[in-house]
Amino acid sequence: MELNKATTAFIACHWENDIAGADGAFAPFFRAEIERRGVIGVAKRLLDGARAAGVSVVYTRVAFQAGHSDLVTNIPLLGVVGQQGSLLDGTPATEILAELAPEPGDTVVTNAKVGAFAASDLDERLRTAGIDTVVLFGVATNLTIENTGRAAGDLGYRVVVVEDACAAGSQEAHDATMASFGLLGEVALADDVLAALG
User: Which UniProt keywords apply (predicted)?
Assistant: First the structure.
């Protein structure tokens, strides 16, 4: 694998307390697999490696305004958000996990959809920075990662999904996305991605 450090961005998707945290609203859906797969530690290695190599680091998080005034529940998963009253912007629920917290120079993009490109300025930010390759990792594999990866491909980006830095609600759901994504982008392990940074 080869990566151009100047035109690559590492995109950490939805590592926020309500989604990936041990006590988050979505912990019953995702936390067991996050822990079993050890993906937080892998994500930290990716983030540290990207920063050390001078590669752009972008966090995406889903968050909603007070009263969920910007929540559209056409998707069942977002209906759950409304029922729970979760993912409110400006609360600890939508802060990035402490162990993966953004550092100075990192970019944080907020949106109110499942995929990171929808209803956000992510595409504009990446193009302005000269990015043509995105390296995706986060939660959940079959939701945010798959949605964001498909959108990135349609927008013309080279897409790399880091298999061992993603988790879904089950191994089966994770594996299904990985099986199909080989036709839509690239699937790699964290060690290979970090090695490509030199």
Answer: Hydrolase
The better pLDDT of the pair 71, 123 is held by 123
DSSP 96: B
CB of 160 closer than 8 Å to CB of 136: yes
Share of the chain above pLDDT 70, in %: 100
Q: Under 8 Å CB-to-CB from 19, ≥6 apart: which residues?
A: 25, 26, 30, 62, 87, 139, 140
- Residue 184 confidence (pLDDT) above 90: yes
Q: Are 160 and 26 in contact (CB under 8 A)?
A: no
Class of domain 5-196: alpha beta
Q: Evaluate if residue 51 carries a pLDDT over 90.
A: yes
Secondary structure (DSSP) of 175-197: HHHHHHHTTTSEEE-HHHHHHHT
Indicate whether this model's pTM tops 0.85.
yes
**pLDDT of 152 strictly over 90:** yes
The per-residue pLDDT for 44 is 98
Structure tokens at 115: 């995929």
How far is 50 from 72, CA to CA, in rounded Å? Answer: 34
CA dihedral (132, 154, 59, 177) positive or negative: negative
- What's the CA gap between 55 and 106, in Å, rounded? 10
